[in-house]
Amino acid sequence: MSLKLKALCKSPWIFHVNTGACNNCDIELVDALTPRFDVERFGILLVGSIRHADALVVTGGVTRQAAPRLKRLYEQAPKPRLVIACGSCACSKGIFHDGYHMAGPVDQIVPVDIYIPGCPPKPEAIIDGVVKLLKKVA
Amino acid sequence: MKRTIIPIGPYHPLQEEAGFFQLQVEGEKVLDIDVDLGYNHRGIEKICEARTFDQIPFVVERICGICSTSHPLAYVQAVEEIARVQVPERALYIRTIIAELERLHSHLLWLGLAGHFIGYNTVFMWAWRYREPVLDIMEEMTGNRQNYAMMKIGGVRRDILEQDLPKIRKMAEDLRPVLDMFVGAVMDDPVIHARTKGVGVLTPEDARRYGAVGPTARASGLAIDVRKDDPYAAYDRLDWKVITGESGDVFAKAAVRLLEIAESIKIVLQCLDQMKPGEIDTKVKEIPPGEGIGRVEAPRGETFHYVRSDGSNRPVRHKVRAPSYVNVPTFKATCIGQTVSDATIILAAVDPCYSCTERMAVVDAGAGKRPVEQYDLVAVSQREGQKMLRSLAGKVAQTTLEKKLAEGYRRIGWKAC
Predict the structure, then answer these.
(1) Residue B398: how many CB atoms within 10 A of its CB?
(2) CA B235, CA B214: separation in Å to the nearest integer?
(3) End-to-end distance of chain B based on CA atoms, in angstroms?
(4) Considering its fold, how many domains does chain B have in total?
(5) Does B38 touch chain A (CB under 8 A)?
(6) A4 is a domain residue
(7) Cα gap B336→B329, rounded to integer Å
(8) What share of chain B is helix, strand, coil (3-state, %, to 5)?
(9) Closest Cα partner for B212 from B324, B64, B351?
């Protein structure tokens, strides 16, 4: 394991991208940072710039307007980078599978490292997903 | 002084959702604002037309995760109007309870985010911590923390169990001292006063002109509330007040929301007292041809659904108008003339919800019709902005300038599909 990846696993900083979600995954994600779940205890931090991020959390099926933006964000992220698809829509387009404005689930736009299903996934599930991802890369 | 354009977004740490704001500034002062949305457009109205009447509540629930009761409720009311269904009494009370609990959690959520925006992370953490019990009760009653799936044409999907009633009551009672704490903390804090009082004032005339709804309009002194004006569910049987502010600034918007939390607690407790055992569901055989509307006061304002049926098992047309659709343009009235640093909280004070709003197709009339399949709508909007700026570089009188901006705004702007 590279030194960078080792450091990443100690304290993954995440950047959150909403590519067409209904808000639920987003508020559950932010919920994970607030006192009841408080993932900051484990060094997980929501950062404001993609250039500081280790992991990209993508919520929502990717709409046509958001797809080029997501690609650009992925390219801007410093390597090694991890992508987490959070919620049913991000994993498989979910209930919007036949919508005309859907460019695809996240894995058709950028490579995805872990899928967290659920509509919305509970904060516990999101934390569990991140832990499993860190175990996988470590 | 030189005009500068500050782009905010579309992926911005301050917003959960993607929205692209262009602030035109001169030094610190905001001269104009342009909003470019569409990142969350999922084509829900079209998807709904391909679903049966019973499936649609699940789709419209996912229009917005925060108002995940208001949209299905408005939809089922529209369909009930077509089918002329009498909803059982108990179902009406259950609808009211769910809708008010949703308002509780939504307003607490907003309070937290507003605190975060003005750099008061303590308020953020507090508000979200006290929001958790509401979500726990929701999970216990409906099976999910969000997306409750309670609304159904003709009634509700689940009954509230007798053993859950004391838990709901306790949760509501426990929230009262918390609310007092918040009111004390927010209303008396000098920093919050300095940051929000007199900032982003929306005058009653402007509110009326832009057609603002919900807390945004009520903070400006307009007492509009669908729950009072056109009562649905059990609101006409309950005793509660419409909260209005006076000044229309960010502070008034916060105050209105805080006091509405107290009213919501009152409504929930009254529902628990008045609710009697009984049926929760009417059988609906078929939906006859016709059209119906449903109006619901969502936490952000009036949600409007229109459904037309031709007698088959799916609607011919389903139209959604979310509150943010009319509240977002009030930025034009509130942001201009303010400083850049205040712009964020002014934008946030409306509690804009883009996933609700994105019903429209973007059409660029200048270069012929551009359907939504176009990938590079952002570039169009940016080019448009630059073009406008170039054309305005001369010494244009303020009035023409306004007119040109309005025209450009309309050209990039939104047309309902």
Answers:
(1) 7
(2) 16
(3) 40
(4) 2
(5) yes
(6) no
(7) 12
(8) 50, 15, 35
(9) B324
Q: What is the dihedral of CA B245, B248, B250, B256, to 10 degrees?
A: 20
Contact A64 B375 (CB under 8 A): yes
Q: Tens digit of pLDDT for each residue in B207-236?
A: 999 899 999 999 999 999 999 999 998 999
pLDDT tens digits, one per residue of B145-200: 888 889 999 999 999 999 999 999 999 998 988 888 888 777 777 777 888 888 88
User: For position A77, which CATH number holds?
Assistant: 3.40.50.12280
Which value does ipTM take for this structure? 0.90
Contact A55, A13 (CB under 8 A): yes
CB contact under 8 A, A122 and B145: yes
Amino acid at B199: V
User: Can you tell me which residue has the tokens 């299905």?
Assistant: B72
Tally of structural domains, chain A: 1
- Could you tell me where the DSSP H helices lie in chain A? 3-10, 24-31, 67-76, 88-92, 123-137
Report which DSSP code applies to A121.
P
The answer to whether A134 touches A55, Cβ cutoff 8 Å, is no
- Best CA proximity match to A8, nearest among A73, A42, A47, A55: A55
A5: closest CA of chain B, how far (Å):
25
Does the residue B340 lie in any domain?
Answer: no
